[in-house]
Amino acid sequence: MSAKxxxxxxxxxxxxxxxxxxxxxxxxxxxxAPLGKRLPATLRRTFRNSPVRCFAWHRGxxxxxxxxxxxxxxxxxxxxxxxLPEYQGRGLGRKIMRFLxxxxxxxxxxxxxxxxxxxxxxxxxxxxxxxxxxxxxxxxERRRAGYLE
Length: 149
Hints:
- By secondary structure, this protein is an alpha+beta fold.
- Helix content is 30%, strand content 23%.
- It has five helices and five strands; from the N terminus they run E-H-H-E-E-E-H-E-H-H.
- The chain is globular, with a radius of gyration of 15 Å.
C-alpha cells in the first residue's frame, strides 16, 4: 500500500483542459487507483469527447481525473472518477466531484461507481437506483467484475 502524499487540497489544481494530459500517465492513475487497465488512446478519446472533464494536478503531477456526459439541463452521467491511492481519503475525490457536478448543470445526476466504492458516493448524497439497466458487449465479464447481477 502506498504512503499518503503530503499535500493540502488548496495545492491541488483542477483543470478541464486535456491538452496538458499525458494519456499514458492517466492510464497509470487508473491502474493504480485501482480501476483497471485502460488504453491511453481510449482515455484520450473518451475524455476529449466528454463535455465536462476534470484533471487534478499536484506539483505538475496528474493525481486524479473524472468526466461527465451531460445535456446541461436535465441529466448527467458521472464517469471515470479516479484518484491515486496516496491521495485518496483526504478530500480530493470530493473536490473533483464538486468540480464535475457544478459544470454538468443538470438536475439529475447518475454515476457509474466501481464495486466497493459506493460508500464514497453515498457520503455525497447518491443512492442506489432500483431501475438502472445496462447493455455491455461482454456482460459475463461485467458480471464477474461486480457491475451486473
